[in-house]
């Protein structure tokens, strides 16, 4: 079970907001997802230790990145999925862009391994085979409402189960409160 203390979520939300302004002073909306590593289409420069305080705190370094706001994620083609896990009170309908579309926009190689990291440090390595086996979605809304920091947002990386309940072991491969994708 992963616990996310309110304080850490609040600090993370503030740091993510500061990251967007640092990397793009004209930004009016904070970054909710940062992609780093091997990519062909970066849209920001290297880690700024002052403005990227949360990333620095998590010992993340990079020479280039690709950042997305909620609006940028919503502007991509959206996919709706329904998922359910044993023990959940009900099925959940989620919506967001496909992970493959976001990685393509960043210029990440299809054969790269992707490390998906949550605000609390939880991470999952997604091999190319894992990504091809499922239709992974970067959900930004659940049951019609935006995902929020302090819940399972701002971004939740998962795939649909067609509403069939799956095990908690499968859910463990999904990353909620996602803020970082590292392309290796």
Secondary-structure topology with pairs:
Elements: H1 6-23, E1 31-37, H2 53-57, E2 65-69, H3 70-75, E3 79-85, E4 92-96, H4 99-106, E5 114-118, E6 123-126, H5 128-133, E7 136-139, E8 141-142, E9 145-146, E10 156-159, E11 165-166, H6 168-171, E12 178-183
Parallel strand pairs: 1-12, 3-11
Antiparallel strand pairs: 1-2, 3-4, 4-8, 5-6, 5-12, 7-10, 8-9
CATH architectural category: Alpha-Beta Complex
Assign the CATH topology: Sulfite Oxidase, Chain A, domain 2
Helix/strand order = HEHEHEEHEEHEEEEEHE
**Average predicted confidence as pLDDT:** 89
Explain what this protein looks like in three dimensions:
- With 184 residues, this protein is α+β, with helices and mostly antiparallel strands.
- The chain has a single domain (6-183), classed as Alpha-Beta Complex (Sulfite Oxidase, Chain A, domain 2).
- It is 26% helix and 29% strand.
- Strand 3 (79-85) and strand 4 form a beta hairpin.
- The longest helix is centred in the first third of the chain and has 18 residues, at 6-23.
- It starts with 5 loop residues before the first helix and ends with a strand.
Outline of this structure?
With 184 residues, the protein is of the alpha+beta class.
List keywords for this structure.
184 residues, alpha+beta, Sulfite Oxidase, Chain A, domain 2, five-stranded mixed beta sheet, 12 strands, disordered N terminus
């Amino acid at each position: 079970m992963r616990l996310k203390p309110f304080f850490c979520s609040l600090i993370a939300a503030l740091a993510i907001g500061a990251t967007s302004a640092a990397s793009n002073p004209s930004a009016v909306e904070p970054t909710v997802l940062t992609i780093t590593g091997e990519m062909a289409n970066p849209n920001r420069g290297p880690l700024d230790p002052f403005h990227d305080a949360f990333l620095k705190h998590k010992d993340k370094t990079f020479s280039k990145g690709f950042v997305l706001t909620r609006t940028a994620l919503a502007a991509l083609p959206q996919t709706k999925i329904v998922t359910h896990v044993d023990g959940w009170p009900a099925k959940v309908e989620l919506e967001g862009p496909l992970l493959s579309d976001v990685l393509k926009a960043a210029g990440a190689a299809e054969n790269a391994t992707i490390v998906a990291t949550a605000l609390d440090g939880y991470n999952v390595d997604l091999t190319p085979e894992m990504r091809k086996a499922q239709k992974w979605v970067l959900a930004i809304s659940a049951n019609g409402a935006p995902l929020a920091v302090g819940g399972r947002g701002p971004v939740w990386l998962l795939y649909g189960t067609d509403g069939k309940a799956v095990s908690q072991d499968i859910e463990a491969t999904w990353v909620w409160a996602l803020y970082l994708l590292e392309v290796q």
